[in-house]
Amino acid sequence: MASEAPPFWWEEPDWRVLALSPLSAIYAAAAGRGMRRAKREKIEAPVLCIGNFTVGGTGKTPVAIALAEQAKRMHLKPGFLSRGHGGSFADAVVRQAARAGRPIFEAHTEPSGKAGLAGKRFLAFAGIGHPEKFFDTVREAGGELALTRPFPDHHFYAEDELAELVATARAEGLVLITTAKDAARLRHGASQDFLDRLEVLEIDTVFELDHVPERIIDETLDAWRQRKLKG
User: Fold this and answer.
1) pLDDT on residue 189
2) Helices (DSSP H) in 157-200: which residue ranges?
3) Pairing of strands 121-126, 144-150
4) What residue numbers bound the domain in which 77 lies?
5) Are residues 125 and 172 in the same domain?
6) Is 112 helix (H, G, I), strand (E, B) or coil?
7) Residue 46 in 3-state DSSP?
8) Which of 46, 82, 118, 202 lies 20 to 30 A from 137 at CA?
């Protein structure tokens, strides 16, 4: 059975967060202990981990795709292994990395197909960690958002929810649009009629400096070669 974050997960902290804090601390301690004691498996391939400090809609997938495309241009054969992971304290980690002299690279996401959205009126919906980020991207691509429907992260849509979206869009003369991640989930449950009505906003990751993806991959390969030499 799929689980979803409760609605208050994405709101300003209140008494519920304080009430759950002791359990969070216990879980974090147990998880950290398990990770420290876990057996390290050696594999005959370079490994590049791409993570973030929240679970959904924060840009991990487009970054992974951008780096994979760069790896292909370097005549490598990238593969993906996906696993969910959560956490917090992103700002603190960035500051620690800067103090330690580690490189910090900046990037942003932008829509892949701006021309297709301009001038259209949309009902946008998304079940990701930060749906407002998606809504803003639709606007940036030239689309007019008449209505928005945010859903919980990793939401699995029920038939009545999809029917309501279609009915509302039809009544208001709007086009349905969602994220690529939501579209992937919908392909395993929504009707073909719903999918035919749906537009999907694809996004790309653009690094502030063009050479950054190649540098990241080069450093990953170099670290792998050093590990092999050490045995």
Assistant:
1) 85
2) 159-172, 180-186, 192-197
3) parallel
4) 45-112+203-231
5) yes
6) coil
7) coil
8) 82
